[in-house]
Amino acid sequence: MKRAKQLEIAEKVRGIHRQLGRLEPSLILPLMKSDDEYLIVQVWQEGSHSANFAHEKDRKESLKLLNTLHETHKKTTWQRMPGLHTYSQLLKWQMRHMRFKSRRNEFRAFLTKEEIDQILHYSEKSLQLIALEDISEKEITLLHGDVVHHNFLWCSDGKLRLIDFDLAHLGEADDEYILWLHRVLPAIDYDLGKIFAELPELKRLDKRKLHRLKYPNELLREWLFAVDLPLDQQLIFLDYLVPFTKRALTYWPKLWYDIDRMMKK
Predict the structure, then answer these.
(1) Please, what's the largest Cα pairwise distance for the chain?
(2) Which of 4, 111, 130, 203 could form a disulfide with 9 if both were Cys (CB 3.0 to 4.6 A apart)?
């Protein structure tokens, strides 16, 4: 059960569920009726649990689920659905970079100046590369919009399903695969070669978009989230985020090199 912040979002989620219920019902959990228009209620799944991207099976099944979702553009025209829009990923990331930069002094209590400079350097340089992309547009389809592990749910019947379509929007499938890789890479020590060898489906991804994996999206987002938490919650979250950040930064130079090498193949 989840309460939408706006009625338009609740209506969008219900519309997506109705359409997917007709096209690919195995992707989702059915919604239950509610007298509260803002409330999104799904059938309770006893014994359900979130996907874990450290597990190969969960990586394979979650990508398969996204593939199936994106392929629905062949069966329906998502552009006709009210509440679904496109947005610029580059612009969103540029804004995130600027917000992080403007609050850098707040991070100094937890990270060294060098670590903050590293994050900003990788962010700025990757954004410059992304801005230079010259890529033909692909088919527009429905994107889930938030491919974090806990939005992939192992249900009581043993099947993996997508939940929480609040951030669903229109875009190219490649853009969501990039965001999925951002979520998966930390769980596999940022081993780009491993994930591409493990999942041949990723070969459909336009290599010219791999620059987007250089952008430290997880670090920027999580730190901007952390500094606005109440102090008691912040301290708990930082126990996870500080080592996560330090570990990520040790892998970033090799990740950058691996991306460049893969793009040249």
Answers:
(1) 56
(2) 4
Tokens of 103: 């609050």
Q: Which residues are within 8 A (CB) of 103 and not within 5 positions of it... i.e. 6 or more apart? A: 224, 227
User: In 3-state terms, what secondary structure has residue 143?
Assistant: strand
Q: pLDDT, tens digit, for every residue of 112-154?
A: 999 999 999 999 999 999 999 888 888 999 999 999 999 999 9
Closest CA to 218 of 248, 194, 191: 248
Whether 198 is in a domain gets the answer yes
- Residues with Cβ within 8 Å of 111's Cβ and at least 6 positions away in sequence, in order, are 242, 245
Determine the number of helices (DSSP H) and then strands (DSSP E) in the chain: 9, 8
Non-local CB neighbours of 22 within 8 Å, separated by 6+ positions: none
Give, for 40, the enclosing helix (H) or strand (E).
strand 39-42
CATH of residue 242:
3.90.1200.10
Residue 4 within a domain: no
Residue 32 covered by a domain:
no
Number of domains in the chain: 1
- What percentage of residues in the chain have a pLDDT greater than 70? 97
Is residue 2 a part of any domain in this protein? Answer: no
- The model's confidence at residue 43, banded by pLDDT at 50, 70 and 90, is confident
Q: Which of 12, 19, 215 is nearest to 129 (CA)?
A: 215
Please report the pLDDT score of residue 29 as a whole number.
Answer: 86
Identify the CA nearest to 160 among candidates 24, 33, 4, 13: 24
pTM for this prediction: 0.94
